[in-house]
Structure formats: structure tokens, C-alpha cells
Fold these 3 entries.
Entry 1:
Amino acid sequence: MKSICFFVMMLLCASYSSIAQSGINKFNLNFDKYNEETKNAEGWAKWGFYEFSKAVKLDNENYVGKVVSDKGGDFGCVIYKIPSFYKGDSIQLSGKIKTEKVKKGYAGLIMRIDGLNQMIQLENSHKKGIEGTTDWQEYSISLPFMNNAKNIFVGGILQGKGTAWFDDFKVTIDGQNIQVMDEIEQFQQLENVEPELVTIFDNYKMNLTFEDDFSQGASLIPLINIVENKRIVSIGEDTHGTAEFYKFRAALTKALIKNKGFKTIILESPFDDIEVLSKNLKSTPMNELIHSYLLSIYHTQEMKEFLDWLKFEGIAMGVKFKGCDDSYWLIHDLIGSELALQSDIEIARRSKEYLSIVEKYYGENDRNRFKIGSGVYQSLLSIDKYLYENGLQTARLNELIHNAKNSFLNYWLIENGKPIKSRDEIMAERVTFLAENNNEKIIVWAHNAHISNDVIIDNEIGLMGNQLKEKFGKDYYSIGLCSLEGSYTYIENNFIYDDHDYSDKLLKEVITFQPDTSWEQVFNKISASPFFIESFDINKGLPGKEVFGKLKLLGYTKETKNDYYDASLLSMFDAVVFIPHTSATTPLLED
């Protein structure tokens, strides 16, 4: 089933027949407008491999979509394209399906939403598809509706063997039938409003300096005053390997801790690694800690300088250093050590059982890992329940078990046929846990892609920040850090959590693929020096439409053209820091 998702995502947009944009039936979602010349329903197209994927007439003169399997590939679809001139929070597709002898796959609904030049969401019923022979029945699927949607593709899909018929599709946005919704142009391209934006930005920008610590601290005062009463302040980065971003985050973080009551720093890194690092900060050489417990991209002089400050000053002020990413390698030892402090016999038994399952988890191959991982999750649930029911839960155990459960939750979801949670969703839950249980003011260090208020691509960009914004509202404040040109460091490993080996070499490269028209290029026309702006100020001067333009979102690895996304930057972040020319982080020097 993974292959079907991959192929659908890679397909080019289907051709679209022009359809009248007025009246209750402006979209031919019931197949009844049939074109005898093309031998297909108007507006409908074929996706996939099965040759017979088209509209046909049934005995009662009703036209329906039909997909029949053949030897030409893995799947087939009947697809209808709707230009997106709508606003809303959620979109639902419903439709009737009939099947005959469907096996080795499924039949179901499919809905894909494309942005300006890329797919941003997909739902294809593969988790709850129909098998066998069934009579007509109505089904539905839904997705969050993105504000940068350009085209909506809806239809029916058959994967595997058999025949499927589809009819009477209906699309609703926030419960309203799309057939009767008012159409609006909801966004515009950056290049079309660039002169206007340059003028507005110039009026509202506030200059920053990186000449020395004193002048930088003074230039941060306006931003500090803006965020001082927030509960969660997220500070981003458009690459993980930019020295100025680390220096800026360190300066702002220190100021908020010293003067504004912030006490917790959360890094985009495994929770358990940061727990062990923090515990040994005073007793173990810094280089050894960094190489053992930080991802390779953080093996830099800039990170060491900040951790030295944390060691010699931050801890004395009660600062806590936390991680928000999945924990697979050290979390079990941490939990086992805490449970060993309990004198309860039943806890000792459950702890032994839990650690035994964990041992099997690491000893199994990938085929059995999902089942064993689900067992780890269920064992954690059992321990957690017993602790609460018997009044034995401690704050420390609560935090450790919460993070371990989140790390292994998807194994259980997969085993039980349920939709999994994305990495961003789980990171948001970890940040929320600390904010709600410790009632402290928190600073998050994570990539721009994670802290964004808006979801740009489903389950990939913005889901963490979006959930925190929904949960905490104005108490959540995101600061995006952007650059135009310069160098950066990266690693070649795309799968940084596959093991606990943080020995990847830091490599250096120059930013190469910056488009001629982008948010960064517009910023550079305003000032050749660093500055920041508040999005609220800019939006006051703009028309109601959101503005989309290319924005760099480069992760751990080497830059490609695909690292530039069409994004509504002013919706993504509450404030944006722009540094025209940046430099690569300095690899950690050996002791």
C-alpha cells in the first residue's frame, strides 16, 4: 500500500475541462454530463495504470465512474479537478461506492490538494478501504484545508484486483457544499505586490546588529518587549547549519531568561538524549557530551558556547534544557532507574516485563519491530495506569513515561489499523506537556518548518507550530529566521534517527539555488543589514489576500531546488528576522 501512495503523489496534474462557474451543478461530480465524443464524463480524467478508468452508463441511464483492474500496473483512479477559490478550515469528500471481487488491495475515495506547484495533502482511503463484493454505500474522507490550496482533485481509486463503481460525489468545506459556495481569489503571488511590500517593510523594519554582544543586546530590546509576556516563544532557522542563527537565538534566549522569567529551553532533538546531557553537564567534558548526545548537525562551536553558558550560568538560574523529539535509545534506562526507586512489588514485576519487551524490540528485525514496538507502548500504558491508580506517580516518572509513550505510539496505531501521528504532532504534544504541567515560560529552538503557525505541507511543514498556536493562541509566538546568501553546514545522512550513532561529518557548502523572486530577495531590497519585522504590522498594510512566494526551508542535508517552497511567510511567523549574508557553523574542535 505504500507504493500506491507514492505513485499517486508523483502523478502530474490531470487535464481539466473548462466548467461553468455558476449554478448548483457547476462541477460534474455525479458524472451525468457525458461527452459522447470523448466517451467520458465532462471534467473527469484517468489517473494510474488501469486502462478502463472512466465514466460508463448503467442500465437505469445513470452515469457512474468505473475502474477495472488489468495487468497494466498497481492501481487506477477516476479523478475530477476543482480549482480552489475557497476559504475554510476543513474539506470533506463523500461519495457512493460499489465493488465486485476486490482483493489484494482496496477500493475507496481519493482526495489530493495541490499548492502553487506541488502536492500539499493526500488522502486515499488506504487505511479503511473496501474489499470483496459490496453494494452501493456512501463513504467519506476529510483533510484540513490549506490556505495555499490551488487545485482540489477528488475521485475514486481501486488498488489491486477487481472492479469498483463510483457515483454522487459531494465536496464540502466547513460543512458548505462547494457547488454553491462563493468563489474568491484567496492569494496572490509575491512578484505582483513586491513594490508595495518593499515600502511597507521599510516602514516597519527594526534594525539588528551582530557587531558585538553589547550592541546586539541593545538591538534586541524591541523584540524582547514584544515577547516578554508570551508562554511559548519559538525561534527558528531556515538551515540547521547557520552560525548567525545560533548566535541570535543564544542572545535572545539569555536575555529572556535573565530578565523576563523564561526557565525552559526545548531543542529539536531526542528527549532522552537531552535528559542525559543535562544530567551530566557539570561532570562530563563538554565535547564528549556533545558527540554522545547531540545530533551531528549540532557538533559546532556555536552550540558548545551556548552549553558552556548553560553549564556555568543557566543552571544556577534554574534553567531546564529539554528535547522534543522521539526517544528510542536511552529512555528505557531512565524509566527503569526511576521505577527501581519504588518499593512496590507489582511495579518491580511490571518494570521487569517492560524492559524484557524492550530487549526484544532491539533484538528483532524490521518485520517484527512494529508488533514488538506496540508491545512496548502497551507495557508503558500498564505501568502508567498502575502508578496513577495507586498514588505512586511522580512528576519525573510522569514526564519520562509521557515521552516514551509518544515515541512508541505509532507502532500501536499501525498494529491496530489506525492513522499514525506525524513527528510534528508528537513534538507539539511534548511542548504542550511541559507548558501545561510545569506552568513555565518556554523557549523552543527548532527549524522554521516546525515552528510555523501555518501548515504548508500536510504532516511535514508547520504542524507543530500550528497546533501550539491553536492551543495557546496569542501566548504562542513564532520567530522565523531567514537568510539570502552565504554558507552553511550540512550532513549527508537523511535518516538521523535510525540509530544512536552521531558521527556524521559536518560538511560546508554555499547557498546556490536562491530564486530570483523570493521573500529573501524582497527583504534584501529593503536593507543590506539585518532587521526584524512583526507580521501583524505588515498585514495591516496589505489587502485581504494572502501573499505567497518562494521561501528557503533547508534541513539537515545539502541544498536542492526542492528546498524552496511557495509559502505565505506573513502567516507562518509572528515575526521574521532577516540576515542578508550568513556563514556556516564552525565544526566542534577536538579537546
Note: Residues 488 and 584 are 4 Å apart (CA to CA).
Entry 2:
Amino acid sequence: MPDLLLELRSEEIPARMQRKAAGDLRRLVTEALVEAGLTYEGAREYWTPRRLTLDIRGLEARSRTLREEKKGPRTDAPQKAIEGFLKAAGLASLDEAETRSDPKKGDFYVATVEKPGRPTEEIVAGFMPAILREFPWPKSMRWGPVSAQAGAPRWVRPLQSILCTFGPETEEPVVVAFEFAGIASGNLTYGHRFHAPDAIRVRRFDDYAASLEKARVVLDAERRKEIIRHDAQNLAFANGLELVPDEGLLEEVAGLVEWPVVLMGAFDEAFLAIPPEVVQLTIRANQKCFVTRRAGGEALSNRFLLVSNIEASDGGAEIARGNGKVVRARLSDALYFWQTDQADLPDLDALKGSAARFGLDLARPLDQRMAKLDALGVTFHARLGSQGERVARIADLAETLAPLVGADPALSRRAAVLAKADLTTEAVGEFPELQGLMGRRYAALQGEDPSVQAAIEDHWKPQGSSDAVPSDPVAIAVALADKLDTLVGFFSIDEKPTGSKDPYALRRAALGLIRILSENAISLPLGRFVPAGDLMAFFHDRLKVLLREAGARHDLVDAVLSGAAGADDDLLDVTRRVEALGAFLSSEDGRNLLAGTRRAENILAAEEKKGGAMGEGVDPALFASPEEAALAQAVETAETEAGACVAARDYAGAMGALAQLRAPVDAFFETVLVNAEDPALRANRLALLARIRRATRSVADFSRIAG
């Protein structure tokens, strides 16, 4: 079977776009092939900073001939209808159509339309210009002489060449001929722009990849990553050091080079007085370099690793020296920020009012920064007040929450007051991603309690699904207060997430709050802090997302929330009920009881819909069979025992109590006719079914369980 090779070579593609763009190219081309009726064995995409490549193996040489019958109008239809049919079917006259009969509709015309197959290279040449014209780049540009014209072609960077060949291994492949942006496709590519810029004639993928390798281009991004990782680790080891892993940077750097060459640079050891996170971020953000540490230790070294795109004649010495010069300049700035943040602010007298309002000590640098945050009146949101007003709310809430999560109220208030102080520091102003971490560093320098230090950093967490949640009680109190204030505030002004839009990250805040409660096993009655209505429903929706991701059935979540009897504001409690219900329904007793309770629910629903009479209570004097009495006694026992277990939050025990209903419910439905002719008997039996429903709903609404 023939193979298709496609390469789009351009000026440098931003690293963050490369992986997705290569995937988009594979998706768009393979979808077009399938739509054209072609099959293939496999497709793989590749990318470098200057090219997107697609290798499609086992592609059919031509599409199949298709025959399709098109039903036309009746033979006695108006002439215009017949003419329309002929035109749509591509027939010259009715002589080319077939007449068929239908017992009900009479005689009608049928056309057999044959669509002949086409060579694959013709099909590809037909759809490729449209794919390139509509390619989903996040940003694109026009270039060249025609760039000012309306409808000028666009690409992420100026496109330089297009390679497209098709054919079997045993024959010379053909060039799939098409044009885009004034560039005609061909069978030429080009190697490394400095080491091997000459044209390379290509036949198929294997010689293409091998030729590029000789021309100093490693086509496979994953292989470039492994080369960088391996060479960086070896170079660090040779100097008695260890590479500090950074997968995000590794991914980015692999997208910046076609021929990775790892070099080592250095900076003055005096800069190691800066917190290591600042050193690493400074070097990472400005120079895309990796930091190292002493072998077997945690402290950073003054050596860093950079990845060049060329093999320099001097072994890279000048490249390393130039990078070291820039790194030293950036670290000088970082050292200035670090030292400035520990010094007194120049306008302390203007901060005394804010200091008094929050109980701050202006002899402490971090307290000064919090006073400055308040005094500046920085707006948090036009309708929710300033940052200072928000901190006051969070501090009050953290102090209230503290006893409920096992935290010290005074420490929780102190941590909440200082939690946003580092927003006014020079370090966070330069590196916003260090918010929290820098606050913790500065809090340690001024001797704050370790729990306060932890809370200042961890109250922002979790930022994503892979991020750890706070575990220190003070940090938990502040994190919950911060997220509750955000959610309650924005919901109160009707700024709720809609569809895919969530500008204030409220979904993340809600998921973070739920994870904090769940992973720390904290029972918290959110109803005390959350207005009834939309926000609690929003929490329930987020809880459903988390539980579904953990493998729980969505119908069990709905069943528990509907039957939680006022306890649906305790999300940990809801989670445990769902877990217990899932375990119960996986047992034979659970499945059989579900069938029985569903039957009871259906009968009650039908009677309630038509307004049927139901007894207010169960009257034993009206029992006409021993099965009724046995069921009544079982319900009484199960309801009492399940209720006690629910009160003790022993949901496995509650399920065990309900399991006792299985046999008497089965016996009742086998021998007793609920809709008896005697109205009194019927009403009493319906009341008995209602008792079953009430007993099971102490844990969950079984009517909402599917299956």
C-alpha cells in the first residue's frame, strides 16, 4: 500500500503551538481522506520549530467507484419536477432512468448514479489548499507582496516550502501537486538552517527522516526531549551536580531547537542568597535554562544548563558566556527585589490607619506590605470592594471556620490578614506565579508561626486537579475562607459561570473547596456560610464532576442529594453516602431491594398522580396476611436502625439495616395485592409502601437510581 508524506516548512513556530498544530494537521488530513472514501493503516505527526510533518502509511491508491440509486418523482408528475430530477441525477433524458412500480404510490422514476473512483493524489491535491487556508492557528500572519490584498493567505509564520509525495515503497513516488500562498508543493526539503541549508530531495518518510538527521535536524520531538534530558543529566553529573527536573521547560526547549546541544553556564555564588524558587524562575523565564543542585543535596548550585541549536566551533564557550551574562543581569534584578522587600517602606506614616484596622505591626516588612495593599485601595471588583475589604472578610470568615476544622482562631485570622500581603512585593510584581510562596518566605523571615507561614502559601491551593490541597488546619481555614468569599461574592452579584465562560475561575474555586473538605475528611455545614439556592446547586454540580471522575455513578449522586434530608450542605457526608450506596447496590441484597423499592415507588407515584386515597398511617388491624405484618415489623426495625446509623454517619450500617427489608418486601409483593377492592385495605397497603419509601430515603431517593 502506498504512503503519503507531507511537510510544511516555515519560519519558527512558537513552541507552545507546535504539538497542537501537528495534531490538528493529522486530524484534518485524515478526516478529509475518510470523507473521500479512502482508508489508511496509520498516521503519525511530527514537529520541529520550523516544520510540521505528517506520515500516513498504507493509504489506498484510489477511491472506490460508488453507485447510488436516487428515487425520482412519479411518472405522471409535472414536467418541472421531472426536469429537476434529471438535473439533480445528471441524466440527459428519461431514457437513462428506470421506471419502477409501487402498489400504493404507482409508477415512479429511479436513477442509478455512478461516481467513479479517483486517484488518491488527485483527492489530496484537491483538499489540501482548503485545509491550509482554514488551518486553526491561534494567531497567524500575512506576508510577502500579496499580504495587503484582501483574502491573502495566512500562516503562523511565513511559509517557506511544501513537500508532498505519495507512492509505494517499491516505486518512485509522485509529487502531489497543489499550491498555497504562492508556493507549489514538491519533493524537496531543507536541513538545519545554519549547518545544512541546502535542498534535500525526498522520496518517502524513511529517507526523509534519515536525511534530516544527517542535516542536523532531529524530527521527533520526544527524541529531542530525551537527548536534552540525557545530555543535561550527564553534563551535570560530570561536574558533581544534579539536574533539577522541569518537565514543562523540557517540553518548551525541545520546541526551540532542531539540533539540541546542551551547554553549561555559571553565575556568581552570591546570588544563591536569593530563594531557590526565585533563582530557578528567573533563569527559566528569561533564558529557558535549567538549574542544577549539588549531588545528593537540595541547595542550588551556581551552574545552569542551556540548550543551543547549533554546534559552535568553540564548543559553545561563547554561547555559554553570553547566556551567563544575561542570567547574572536578571539575577541582579531578583536580588534587588528580594532585598527591597525586606526593607521598610518609605511612607510608613501613611499606613498607620490600615495597620490599626488589621492589627498590623509596622516594624515588620510583610505587615507593611499588607498595610500598603489596604491603603492603596486596590479594587478587587467594582461591586465587591477593595482588596483590603476582601482581606477583612476572609479574616473574619477564617476565624469563624477555624474551630470547625481544628485550627487555632487567632492564628487563622493572622494568616488570613497576611495572605495577600505579598501582592505588593517587588518579587511578586515581577513574578506573579510566586504569590504565596514569597509571602511564606517573608513570613518566615519575620518569625511568624509555622502554621501561618504554611497558610500564606497554601491558601491559594489547589490550583488544578494535580495540585495538592492544604493539610495544615490553619491553611485549611484560610483556603476555605478565601474560596467561600470568592464564590459567595460573585454569586451575590450574579456573576456566575455560563457555558464555557468562567472569567473569575469559580468552577476551580468550588472544586478546590470540595477537594479540601474531602481529602481532609472535614464535615462542614456549608449552609451556615452559603445562601440557599444557586450556589449550593453549583457545589452539587461540581461534586458530581469529582465523584464521576472518581468512578461514581451520576444517578447515585442524584439519589443521595434528593434523599439527604437536609444534610446536602455537608459535601463530605454526601460523598460517604454515595460510596456506601454504590457498595450496597453492588451486592445481591442491594440489587433486589432496589427492584422492590422501585416497584413500591411506581405504585405510589401512580396512585398519587390520580389522587388515590392513602392511609395517614399503617393500621395493623387492617392486615389481611402475615406478609403484611412481617413487612410492617421489618420496616419499623429497619427505619429505627437505619436512622440511628445515619445519625452516627455510619452509612454502611444504614445500608445493612435497609438490607433486612429485602426478604419481607419480596414476600409482600409475591402474595399481597396492593390495589385491593376494599378501599380501606388498599389505603393501608399504600401507607405501608410509603413507609418503605420513607425508610430508604433516610439515605437516598431510590427512585432516582437507574437500572
Note: The first helix runs from residue 15 to 35.
Entry 3:
Amino acid sequence: MRARPTTWRPGLFLLGGAAMLCQPGTVYAQDDGEAPVLGKIEVTAQSNDILVQDGYVAKKDRIGTKTDTPIAKIPQAISVVTQKQLEDQKPRTLDEALGYTASANPNSFGFDTRYDAFFLRGFPAFYNGMFRDGLRQYNGPSAWFKTELYGIEGVTILKGPASSLYGVSGPGGIVNVVTKRPKDEPFHEIELLAGEHNRFQAALDASGPVNDDGSILYRFTSLGRLSDTDLPAYPDDKLYLAPAVTFKPDEDTRFTILGEYSKSVTGGTAAFYNSGYGVLSNIYEGDPAWNDFTQSQGRIGYEFEHRFNDVLTVRQNLRYNAVDSDIEYSGHYLPGAGQPLEHYWGHYTETMKNFVVDNMAQLEFDTGPVKHTAVGGIDYAWSDYDAASGLSYVSVDDIKAIPVPHSGGQQMNQLGVYLHDQMEWNDFTLFTSGRYDWVDTTSTSADFSQSKQKDSAFSGRLGLSYRTEWGIIPYVNYSTSFSPNIGFVYDDVTSAVGRVARPTIARQKEIGVKYEIPGHNATVSAALFDIGQKDGVVLDASTNVNKQRQLDLNSRGLELEASASLDNGFSFIASYTYQRVRIERGAEGTDGKELSATPNHILSLWGNYQFENGTLEGLGLGTGVRVAGSSYGDDANSFRNSARAFVDASLSYDFGTRNPKLEGVKLQVNAKNLFDNQKTICSAGYCYRDEGRSLVASLRYRF
């Protein structure tokens, strides 16, 4: 039996004193000449600072343009996972949160809570497509920054190349996680959660003004969790602490400090033994005596904004973050025909550090009849990872005793300058964005020899939209991306000799339409896209030791998406994606084939209904389905993965609708994969297993 770190257990109880913070108040509304009536004010968790949202519908965002711009005006496809969606669906990982987003595919590697490994428009976005609060957040080969969903207030997904503003990023787009920020009004929340596999979690979120004039705001978000999973000796434990402070000396100045510390322990191995090519067995690869993936991560940074006048606003955003990973993993191998399976054990450690600072100036002015909102800036990013790896074919005691030798590292320095101008004339909006990046990379091999590489490139975006008299907004855009790659690649994955990866470049053509339905809190959108990529990096799992290789791809597709939160208590999200991702240049025998584990058809639909009157007042019902069509199991297209469908559901009850003394108390039950549909999914010839049904119940008190 695996011994759990006893020092973590107080993390579950550090929240117990939160109920002492304040007592719930009753709010009354009174019209002249009428008796007082009870008026209910809904308390929401989001701050609406850089992502403005209303239920399931996002209204305004800063990520697409680096200015606060209505999403309908941005001539590029953007999806948003709002705070309300996160609360209703209760996803446990960022992968799960993206499950209802058009062109997002988080289902290529089966059950694996170690990483958030998702694809956008057919391209991997988990290394260089991760952003937090508008700043890039590089992942190392195995030291990935994990997102605690309780600590965020939304996720913005900008589809397609985005290097014209954000520099180094991937062809499929970027996923920007928005951290919970201090709120102007008092907000307090306690949540207790329990589920199958001995899952126990407690969380606290508190925010509001510190002083009487509201010039200092705070927020403190924390979570403690102890949990098993359906895999033996595979935990899912976490301690998460995130303080934040905002200083507002006047209405034109804002300075926010954002911090985080978290420590997690998951399983080191999530895979099952592949008994043949494309054949998954029931033999779990993990050894209960050697199966912990311990990770510590932290970040500290700030956001500064000052508005000088109606024309000029300046901002500086800065962050440093680091992650330290220690992975105990194991697997099986067949020493020879007719012989029994043997075990091997591995030990991998890695540290990843990032620093990034973004300085920008925003100008608002007119040139004749044309209204301009322009942004110019310069940013700098530094990243450094260092790894060590050891392997034993003897025993657990042997892998514990042997030192972990250095296996490689890389340091990257990136400097970028950019300029963006969004011009409005009558009902036309024209976006022009341009950026130039210089990147210096130093790679260190296992023998500590070094090689240096310099890359530079221009990235651009040109987009045009037109608002018709009916409120329908058609648009067109052309955009490019540029991304030097961290790590080594192998042209021959059976060889021990690798090379520094070449930068990935891509170009996209997109045409689409957006529509905000008049009189309703609802939006619909459609987009056609064509992306060509050169020198992309993918993981090749065809050998026992996963290695990266490079290839050229073309992705074409159609996206349809809709979201709404209506006055009658009904909210829904719907999306459909058709995409074809073809290998233009890849491993031998794969040219012209479709990329593995990439279905041509992806469909999702989620609806939630809150009864607002009558006998069932306070009851909430939600259900959704995620459907992924069949796909190929390897890049040679020699066999197929079957189509899969997962049904999710939620049931909630708001006790405050019947009893004012219980206002803010909500009980909720969520089910993932309600019908326990477990299938095999193979990617690049290696096969994984989907997670079965998961049930959790939560009790929340918000005041």
C-alpha cells in the first residue's frame, strides 16, 4: 500500500475556519407605496476584469487583440469556457474543460491526469500553446504546468495562428487560462466535494475590499484534495494556494499581484501494456511500489495598468514560474518469444523555469472617419529546463539506489516587438497585426556538450469583418505563426541520436460568420479554415521510450458553435467540427495519410435548466453528450479507432430558493461518462484506455 504524505492532510482542514469570515445578509428591495419584498442578488465568482461573461456567453475579451474588445468584432474564431460552465460541469482537468469546445480534441491519450494534452484544429497545443493571463507559459518535455480549475474564472481559446500578437505559439491556436482576480464586492465561498475512488476535496475562495474606500482588494483561493483513482496506487492528491492583491489608488491606475503555490501527487504511469501493434491488454504498466509522480509548482507576477488620458493607456504584465517534477514510472517488456513479461522501472526528474514580461501602450484616436485602437509593445521571455533520467531492469530497490544521470536541457531567450491596429469605419472593422521575434536557444545533451541556435521570423495577421443591418458579422482573416521548439527530435525514433528541433511555422486562411441574437443572451458562429504547417513536433510512442519527431501537416475544416444563457433558466452549448488533418511530410509510409487519433467529426451538446418557479423551484438539471467519430490508430492508417460517445449529467438544488436562511447553499452531483463507455484509443500506433464513469457530489456555501 502506498504511503500518503501526512503533511498534506491539514490542507483539507485549513478551510474550516472560513465560515467565521462573515454571516450571510438578506437584501430587500422596496418600491414606493409597496411593502418590502425579498430581492435575490446572484453572487458570481468571476471578476469580469479581462474576460467579461454572462452565464455561458462571453461578451468581451482582451486576448484576441490585447485590448478589451467585444468578441463578435474580432475577425477570428474564439471560444470561451466561462465560469458558469465550469461550475455546472465540474471538470477536474483542463482537458475535461475543453471537451465541449469546437476543434478542441483532448481525447487522444485516454485516461491520464498527469498532463493536459489537447489538440486545437488538429495540432498539439500543450507545449507552446499554453498561456496564462495573456503571458506564454512554456511546458518542458515532462515538467508541465498543471491548471487547477478552481483557481480560474474562465478559459479563452483563440483558434489558428496567433504569433502576430503573442509570439511563439502553435498553428492550432492558444489556450489562455484566466486567473481568479480580486473582486470589488465581498465574495466568500466554501465547497466540500466527495466522490468515488475515495475522492475528498475542500476548497475556499474569498475576495473583496480590504479598506473602506475600496482602493485595496484581495483574493485568496485554496484547495486540498486526497483521492485515489480506478488505477492501483495511482493517486490524484493536491494542495493549492493562490493569493492575489489589487491596488487601485485612483480610477486610472490598477496594480494586481497574482501568486500560486501547488503540490500534487499523481500516478507515474497511466498506460496499459500493448501486447501487439494496436492491441491493448488488461495489464496495467504501473508497479504499486514505484508509481508516484510528485510535482511542485509556483508562480508570482503582476499586472500594471495606467490610463494617462483618453488617448494613451500603458500596461506591463510580468510573471516568473517554475515547476519541479519527479516521476517514478514502470512498464513491461517481452524479453523473447515464449518468455513471460518482465518489468522495467524508470526515474525521471525535470525542472522547468519561465520568466516573461510584456510592455505595451494602447492608443485610441481618429483619422478622419476612421476610429483606431492601436497597441504597440515589446516582450521578453526566458525559459530553462533541465532533465535527468534513469532506467533499471533489475528491481525497485535498484532504481531507488542508482543515481539519476543528466539527460539533457535547453535554455531559450526570446525578444519580440509587435504592433496591432484595429480600425473601424462605418460597419467595417479591419485588424492588422505584425510582429518580429528573435530567439536564441542553447541545448545541452546528456554528455553536457552544448549547441546553439538562432531563429527569427515575422508573423502577421490581417482580418476584416462587416456588421450587416441584421447583426450578422461575416469575416475573413489570414494569419501566421512561428515557434522554435524546446527539446530534441529524432528523424529515426529507433536511434539514440537526436537533433535540435527546427522551428515550426504555419499559415492560416479563415472565413467565418458571427451572430449575436438580438434580444437574447445567445451567440452562434461558423468558420472555415485551412492551415498549413511545416516542421511540427509530435510525440512518437511507437517505441517503449517516447520520442519526438517533426512533420508537415495540412488541416482543413468547418466549425459550428453556439452558446446561450436565456431568461427562462435554460443555458446550452453546442458545437460541431469537421476536420481533415493530412500528413504532407512525415515518417516513411505516412505521406498523404491522415493524422492518427484525429477524428473527422466531433460533436458536443450540453444543456442546463434551472427551475425558477413552481414546485421544482431551485432544482437544476444538466446533461450533455460528447461524440468523436472514428479515426486512424496510426499515421500509416493501417487500422482505425472506433467512434465513441460519452454522456455527462448534473443534478443540483439551490436551498436558498425555499429558505432564505439557507441562501447561497447549493448541493450538486455530477457524472462523467454516465454509461461507463470505455474504449481503446490509439495514437501513433500506441493504444490507451478511456476512463470509465466518475461520480462526485459537492456542497457549496456562497456568501
Note: The domain at 8-382+396-702 is CATH 2.40.170.20 (Maltoporin; Chain A).
